[in-house]
Amino acid sequence: MASSLTCTGVIWALLSLLCAAASCVGFFMPYWLLGTQMDKPVSFGTFRRCSYPVRDEESQSTVMLEQCGRYASFHGIPSLEWKICTVVTGVGCGLLLLVALTALMGCCISDLISRTIGRVAGGIQFVGGLLIGSGCALYPLGWDSEEVQQTCNNSSDQFLLGELQQEDMSPACTQNLITGCVHFYDKVKN
């Protein structure tokens, strides 16, 4: 199989795929915020949640349903900021996947990725990374929503977690930074 990429370009393609996969998995997983409610572990993502209170009609009480799921609709997402974060981060992940799959095809098909297409792909990848970063920056604005307040005993506010914990997102950020540096090195070198 002929490749339209240099050795550095192949490394960029593989790192792009790794970063896109890590970003998509991180976006989909509901473990961005961790806390407890009614002595049960609770976690939130932008559009998913694990463990939530439901009304038990038999006992006429509220019980915690320990399972993960999406909100019933887009309007069920607890805050406007999380709705925006969901869209922005989802579009960013989509762009990263588009570039990663195109770069991966460039490893197998000759003359698929020219110098111009490589630069455009790098620009799209940069925009995707900016969108994901913007989504992560918007996420704390929704910490004052009623659902988050219930989980942290009404001690959270925007950019203030209260009794909750935030999951560490630095591995995905580091991967995205390394991929950008490899792409920049390849473009400067060629």
UniProtKB/TrEMBL annotation:
<keyword id="KW-1133">Transmembrane helix</keyword>
<protein>
    <submittedName>
        <fullName>Uncharacterized protein</fullName>
    </submittedName>
</protein>
<dbReference type="Pfam" id="PF10242">
    <property type="entry name" value="L_HMGIC_fpl"/>
</dbReference>
<feature type="transmembrane region" description="Helical">
    <location>
        <begin position="120"/>
        <end position="143"/>
    </location>
</feature>
<feature type="transmembrane region" description="Helical">
    <location>
        <begin position="87"/>
        <end position="108"/>
    </location>
</feature>
<feature type="signal peptide">
    <location>
        <begin position="1"/>
        <end position="21"/>
    </location>
</feature>
<keyword id="KW-0472">Membrane</keyword>
<keyword id="KW-0812">Transmembrane</keyword>
<dbReference type="InterPro" id="IPR019372">
    <property type="entry name" value="LHFPL"/>
</dbReference>
<keyword id="KW-0732">Signal</keyword>
<dbReference type="GO" id="GO:0016020">
    <property type="term" value="C:membrane"/>
</dbReference>
